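WARN no homologs supplied; continuing
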Amino acid sequence: MTQDDKETLGDLVNRLKAGSGGTPAERAAAQDKLISEYKSARVSEQEAEKLGNLGEQLNDTKSASQNASSADERRREYLRRVSTPRFQKN
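OK structure emitted
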């Protein structure tokens, strides 16, 4: 656990302790909300790197797909020209 994680967790604990007023149901709801916010805000360095890698893979796939469709289009045009009788002009 990094120092930043420890500080964030310490802040969460302090906020949970400070919210000790109200009914038990209100406290439980407030605690659940704080814990949910804490969990959603955390993204590890490894997760961020994985997301970056997924973005790069998506871009690579997209460019490969565009290149393939462009090659298919040229192939179709070539076949159309080859199969067209010479006396017809397009």
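The two ends are 70 Å apart (CA to CA).
OK
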